[in-house]
Amino acid sequence: xxxxxxxxKTTLEERLSIVEYCIEHDDNDSLTAGQYNGSYxxxxxxxxxxxxxxxxxxYDRRGRKKAEGELTELERLQAENRxxxxxxxxxxxxxxxxxxLEEIEGR
Length: 107
Description:
4 helices
């Protein structure tokens, strides 16, 4: 974590080092944030995730889509609904394009 760029991506190894430092120093998140020039909240978040899930909790999963088997019924239906809306929108655009083409050719 860098003070001048708090949105900088960290590696798994960096996150693990930060968590280990924090735990070794009696869960002093403020001290850890100061040591690594990061935010208190981020240090705290990583420690909590590490305690709950182990090293798996420190992986960056942003942008990761759930596998089909991990979706709840509601999430599956919402995804299906989005797909159907996108398909309908595409079909309507094609219809509108064909109508416009016929209009131009009819002039």
